[in-house]
Specification:
By secondary structure, the chain is of the alpha/beta class. It contains ten helices and 15 strands. The chain has a seven-stranded mixed β-sheet with strand order 3-2-1-6-7-14-15, sandwiched between helices. Strands 9-10-8-13 form a four-stranded parallel β-sheet, sandwiched between helices. Helix 1 packs parallel to helix 9. The longest helix is centred in the middle third of the chain and has 22 residues. The chain is elongated, with a radius of gyration of 22 Å. The structure holds 6-O-phosphono-beta-D-fructofuranose.
Length: 364
């Protein structure tokens, strides 16, 4: 099938490597198919309110090493349940899906590439079921999407977190302190686990394994007895103590998104340790530094491969799929198979065994 005009949008939380995808899709569509490329601005919000612009090869010249997305993104623009606020702070939820489909049709696209995480790709699936020709491209720093071995953005986030752990090591050891690093990972602990392994964390707490505080304290005490009166601990934001819920961050502006934002478990763990152990404790929250900035080579290459293979799939009319990395190859996976499933770290996985067999405490 000839591609005459294609579109691309980036939705949900950003991550490093999005611009690699935009560049690859744009260039491949123009170079291989002589197609026109339309960039939809700010995720699905740009389709709801008809905000878009033409993309050329020249527009993609300098963007490969850039973090973020040149098209903008939002995790608020849900076309089926769009939240609108009045001056008094009241919320009205509106269904803009018909308007979205109408705007899509007016754009006369042969295919729309939807780059996003679980939420955005589920929206893509809903629109495919309504007859739109869409192809998904998976992204998230959390690496928690099913169907793909890795998502781009993840390796960069792990590197940022592991660099931070290296730095916390030297200062923690010098001052004989317990250093806590809180990293992202809402439902899955991949970043904490891999960064913790790379950054020599003594304890790693992840959402999949509810932790027992006494196990963490035991580890710190053993280290003190062994002549190392300092410890470095990495905690995923979604980590929870046995029998307790994850801790949420009470920022006033969170009402705009309508989803509870996680955060604070690092300080919680720090407080508990400080009450029980005679060492000073400090907590660092890495936050959005894991999402921004220059992508590692791995994420640039993965983004580029996913982008070009997505264009190839569109030229073969294979809509309703997402491109995914499986065992070194880019393959197609039906969007419907995502179905809101989170790919968590299995608690009996090899990676967990690796950590425990070198003496890392996982709080159990
Ligand atoms: O899904 C990626 C992620 O980085 C999560 O780990 C985190 O909970 C969330 O995004 C934070 O999103 P934001 O603060 O941008 O709404």
């Amino acid at each position: 099938m000839g591609l005459k005009r294609i579109g691309i949008l980036t939705g949900g939380g950003d991550c490093s490597g999005l611009n690699a995808v935009i560049r690859a899709v744009t260039r491949s569509a123009i170079i291989e198919h002589d197609a026109e490329v339309v960039g939809i601005e700010d995720g699905f919000e740009g389709l709801i309110f008809d905000r878009h612009r033409k993309l050329t090869v020249a527009d993609t010249k300098e963007i490969l090493p850039l973090g973020g997305t040149i098209l903008g993104t939002t995790n608020k623009g849900h076309p089926f349940e769009y939240r609108e606020f009045d001056k008094e702070g009241g919320v009205t939820v509106k269904d803009y899906s018909k308007q979205t489909v109408e705007n899509f049709k007016n754009l006369k696209l042969d295919c729309l590439f939807v780059v996003g995480g679980d939420g955005t790709l589920q929206l893509a699936h809903r629109f495919c079921e309504m007859g739109l020709p869409l192809i998904g491209i998976p992204k998230t720093i959390d690496n928690d999407l099913v169907g793909t071995d890795y998502t781009f953005g993840y390796q960069t986030a792990v590197q940022v977190a592991s660099d931070a752990l290296d730095r916390l090591h030297t200062t923690g050891e010098s001052h004989q302190r317990v250093m806590i690093l809180e990293v992202m990972g809402r439902d899955a602990g991949w970043i904490a686990l891999e960064a913790g392994l790379a950054g020599r964390a003594h304890a790693i707490l992840i959402p999949e394994i509810p932790y027992k505080m006494e196990k963490v304290l035991e580890k710190i005490r053993l280290r003190i007895e062994g002549g190392s009166p300092f410890s470095v601990i990495v905690v995923a934001e979604g980590a929870k103590e046995v029998g307790k819920e994850a801790i949420t961050n009470e920022l006033a502006s969170n009402r705009l998104q309508g989803v509870a934002q996680l955060g604070g478990v690092g300080y919680h763990v720090a407080r508990e340790i400080g009450e029980q152990i005679d060492l000073e404790v400090r907590c660092t929250v890495l936050g959005h530094t894991q999402r921004g900035g220059t992508p590692l080579a791995f994420d640039r290459v993965l983004g580029t491969r996913l982008g070009t293979e997505a264009v190839q799939a569109a030229s073969e009319g294979k809509f309703g799929n997402m491109v995914a990395l499986q065992a070194r190859e880019i393959v197609l996976v039906p969007l419907k198979s995502l179905a809101g499933i989170v790919r968590q770290v299995p608690s009996d996985s090899q990676l967990i065994r690796t950590a425990e067999s070198i003496g890392v405490c996982l709080g159990r």
